[in-house]
Amino acid sequence: MHTHFNDEHISAFLRGDMRALARAISMVEAGDVQAEHLLAALTREGQRARLIGITGPPGAGKSTLTAKLAEVLLDRGERVALLLIDPSSPFTGGAILGDRIRMHAISGRPRLYIRSLGSRGSLGGLSRAVPPVVQLLERFGFDTIIIETVGTGQAETDVVETVDSVVVVTVPGLGDDIQAMKAGIFEIADVFVVNKADREGAEHAMRQIEEALKFGPREVPVFATIATAGVGVAAVLNALDEHYQTMLADGELTRRRERRLRKALHAYAASIVSGHLATWVEARLPRHWPDIESGRSDIYTCGRRLAEEFQAKDVKNHVRED
Amino acid sequence: MHTHFNDEHISAFLRGDMRALARAISMVEAGDVQAEHLLAALTREGQRARLIGITGPPGAGKSTLTAKLAEVLLDRGERVALLLIDPSSPFTGGAILGDRIRMHAISGRPRLYIRSLGSRGSLGGLSRAVPPVVQLLERFGFDTIIIETVGTGQAETDVVETVDSVVVVTVPGLGDDIQAMKAGIFEIADVFVVNKADREGAEHAMRQIEEALKFGPREVPVFATIATAGVGVAAVLNALDEHYQTMLADGELTRRRERRLRKALHAYAASIVSGHLATWVEARLPRHWPDIESGRSDIYTCGRRLAEEFQAKDVKNHVRED
Hints:
Chain A has twelve helices and seven strands. By secondary structure, the first copy, chain A, is α/β, with parallel strands linked by helices. Chain A folds into three domains: about 1-40; about 45-250, P-loop containing nucleotide triphosphate hydrolases (Rossmann fold, 3-Layer(aba) Sandwich); about 265-320, no CATH class. Chain A has a seven-stranded parallel sheet, sandwiched between helices. Chain A starts with 6 loop residues before the first helix and ends with a helix. The interface between A and B is large, with 97 and 97 residues.
């Protein structure tokens, strides 16, 4: 299926038509060839939104906390977008958003847009698809964009590490695995939340986290919440407001945004080049494969050779054309 | 610090010296320039090991299950390597392995090698570092290599999806998040385990998983375990043995191994090219940045232009040299 996006769609997008927004995001997600022109047209001089990232292990109650934070922001009169990052699947695909949304008391509220984003396809990977989608949401005019990820893997860390504020949500009773989780995630947290704080072990988890954060590069507040009952949510949002104001004042907000843009530019250029490289390597592999299988060569020697031939290929084309 | 690895080290490696193995892995992990030559020397005609991947959300008890599986394999007389994939951190870095190992009753057993691998650096990313390390472990002579990941992110999925058998471990009480976890992970599971099966909700979790697996491409057995007590571990290993024999018989093992090698070759070539590209883009960005900031250009137009200039650069050099 080829999605069209013409000048009329761009006008509709700029008028605030959510269907045009949804269509634009789908094109970016699918890596549509038209997406680049669309993004070039819609991402210049974009409005600025506040970006909040929510991450943490499965079962921590991130969706509930996200919904509660969004609710307070909507009550303030803000336009809010929720971007839910999902590991996608060929055979369970579409069901996820529904599952998450079912528990959202806020769905259907005006000035709210909820979008699920899968982790495959997407201009060459999850972390590459998120920045352009965020740019579209900013240009559309949202005041706050909350990006919620599932899991604590590298891809998720990449996604959230360039937002304005990162909330790491954990839960009592993770046992020794909290040690491992810490490692990847502690240094990116701006606000730490121990959710389901009515569960056994909540105080122990708070202490463990506060202890670990002592070794970190900066002060990070830790909050206990019971998101389902709304307990502690206002305190988390206050901390986020404070963090945002501090960053605005000291220039960190501008630095993070520039870093985000530069990263997206690098990723976009890399997706173009690596797409060409993959095709190039795939076409030449059959010639080299027998040597690798028989042990006469190895994948590193062969990989370097193909990479170098790829980088020099235009010379050969040029020479051949002469 | 520059690590040397000379012919004597290669001899030591081939004699079975674990310090030489550890040093070789460190070089690969650090992306040392010598690593390529080392790998070229050591990965040809490699022996074959059986590769088992263990993945699942934090708190599922993966480490305990990994240790119990390793124990049974060691009792059988096998040489076993455990590769623990960790999100790494500048400030908690080294502590993780210790934390995980503390609970391993098996540490210190002969014929066992345990290694933690961080997710940054590493020849350009976690999923790129794992295949060469696995090749080193194979060449060293391990019979079984168990790769355990933390988290359920894309990077983890990438790592485990080309091993011979994937065990997905989950736990009762993940709530709605199991829906999201399913999506990314159900299709890569060869064996599913509900650990901590003495917890409330275990039967419900088993039913949920069996229900979801019905929509999958193939039959996947689901086991209930209590890994801390060793309950169900033998059944999981039997299923893995059976899966391995089936794959051996029907050629799937060879296909998975070829896929793994091809993927590693692609990734290695990509790491070389993308390293050059990043330097290239970074050097030219200051010239383009004012246009992006002022809205005269955008990162996609600029990203494409730099990618195309990069791919054509040798032509220009060539022309210039004439």
